[in-house]
Specification:
- The relative contact order is 0.08.
- This protein is 34% helix and 22% strand.
- It is globular and about 60 Å long.
- Helix 8 packs parallel to helix 9 and helix 12 packs parallel to helix 13.
- It is of the alpha/beta class and 449 residues long.
- The protein contains 13 helices and 19 strands.
Length: 449
């Protein structure tokens, strides 16, 4: 039985693709190994979204290729967005790669692995829009957490974004298939279901019903024995009153929403080919907070879009100071070839972009400190994930903390805690983005011991 190793880079949506590929490989008789030195074939599933992701992908490819000289590896397969974006360049510039597999060809992964095992060069680059949306999964997340991809691709035309060219147009999965998968995940013991797509609010609009089906889907998911249902990402102009009602009424849907705003200046947003402005965003946030008690909001922002003035940047900072969003990810504009924004006049120098990012991060650090201070003395339900490096404290996440992007809660417990347990934790202190506490039953425990 040949062995295969897989490295998955990039976003959660890419991770789900990796899980599908692993399931196909196992079904075909491949043994999956975590040790690339033991693999007969290596697979790297890449991200190609921005420059930093491309650099990481290339470094990982070259590092994995060394096992062809130092280990038993006979071939290397590279899949994903980097392949879809730069297939021809990769063929000429990275001879270490044996087989390419684009984002429309994940179902060909077994053929790709067999070709690599046999020492053959090949490329599988099928139509992205025709790629299968359903299939088995060999999950790479902990047993208690699973990503749940409800749609593929994107039909938005944001000026800075290359994703439609890497993933194809927006395609919703059929609800029956989604519910069958969700039931299987619940039966497997998943407690936290993370609903993902490039834009989950558009789910269903491309199906024959031509309706926004996310509220109906969430109602059905809430009937299943999950503890938490988490939502990523909701575009601000697509959030309806019906959707807000579902989130507010269904206890299993955590009061944590990831809403990418990207900016608040109307001129900058139009240059990005996005709707909205600071005033409409403030009205939306006010409505959400009024109707969803305890709501925690995350957003992503881009600074340094070509032509962004000091006044427009100041407008963004004033919005953040006023709205006090609990979670903010800020990125410097990356002029990606093939995007409209890469050719805009008024490109901003790297030093200015970095300075603006650091200013936003400093502003947000104060908001986060204030938010965490307000949680001191409260009891939070924590999804336990394991021990810290010193194996002295357990750690986990509250509803306000999504996987990898937010902080953790480190807590002492006199009783054993298993990963996947939900534990009441009295919050006693905070350190940066993280919280410290003690299991409620053990609240007299001295954390300094």
């Amino acid at each position: 039985m040949p062995k295969i190793g897989l490295i998955s880079l990039g976003c959660a949506k890419n991770l789900v693709d990796s899980e599908h590929m692993l399931a196909l490989l196992r079904d075909a008789g491949w043994e999956v190994t975590d040790d690339m030195a033991e693999a007969d074939v290596g697979v790297v599933n890449t991200c190609g979204f921005i420059e930093a992701a491309k650099t990481e992908a290339i470094e990982t490819i070259l590092e994995t290729a060394r096992y062809k000289q130092a280990g038993r590896m006979k071939g290397l397969v590279v899949t994903g967005c980097l392949v879809q974006r730069y297939a021809e360049e990769i063929k000429s510039d990275l001879p270490e790669i044996d087989v390419l597999c684009g984002t429309g060809s994940y179902e060909s992964i077994t053929d790709a692995a067999n070709a690599a095992l046999g020492g053959r060069k090949a490329a599988y680059m099928a139509d992205m829009a025709a790629a299968a949306l359903d299939g088995g999964r060999d999950r790479l997340t902990p047993s208690y957490t699973a990503y749940f991809k409800i749609a593929e691709g994107c039909s938005n035309t944001c000026a800075y974004c290359i994703i439609p060219k890497l993933r194809g147009p927006y395609r919703s999965r059929e609800m029956d298939a989604l519910l069958d998968e969700a039931k299987g995940l619940a039966d497997a013991g998943v407690k936290e279901l993370i609903v993902i797509a490039q834009d989950i609010t558009k789910y269903g609009l491309d199906l024959p019903e031509h309706k926004r089906l996310l509220p109906a889907l969430l109602r059905e998911l809430a009937k299943l024995p999950f503890t938490w249902i988490r939502l990523h990402y909701l575009y601000p102009d697509q959030i309806t009153d019906e959707l807000i009602d579902v989130i507010a009424e269904e206890d299993k849907i955590v009061n944590y929403l990831d809403i990418p705003l990207q900016h608040v200046s109307k001129r900058i947003l139009r240059a990005m080919r996005r709707p909205g402005d600071g005033e409409t965003f403030s009205a939306l946030l006010e409505k959400l907070r009024a109707r969803i008690p305890g709501l925690v909001l995350r957003t992503s922002l881009i600074v340094g879009l070509p032509g962004e003035t000091e006044d427009e940047f100041a407008e963004l900072c004033e919005f953040l100071q006023r709205e006090r969003l609990e979670r903010v990810g800020v990125f410097e504009f990356s002029p990606e070839e093939g995007t409209a924004a890469a050719g805009l006049p008024g490109q901003i120098d790297a030093e200015t972009k970095q300075t603006r990012r650091l200013i936003v991060e400093e502003l947000q650090s104060g908001v986060l400190d204030e938010f965490n201070l307000g949680r001191h003395g409260t009891v939070q339900t924590v999804l336990a994930e394991g021990f810290d490096e010193d194996e002295t404290l357990y750690f986990g996440r509250t509803y306000a903390d999504s996987v990898e992007v937010d902080g953790k809660v480190y807590f002492a417990s006199g009783a054993a805690v298993a990963p996947g347990d939900f534990v009441p934790v009295l919050i006693t202190d905070s350190l940066g983005a993280d919280l410290l506490g003690v299991r409620k039953e053990d609240e007299n425990h001295d954390l300094s011991e």
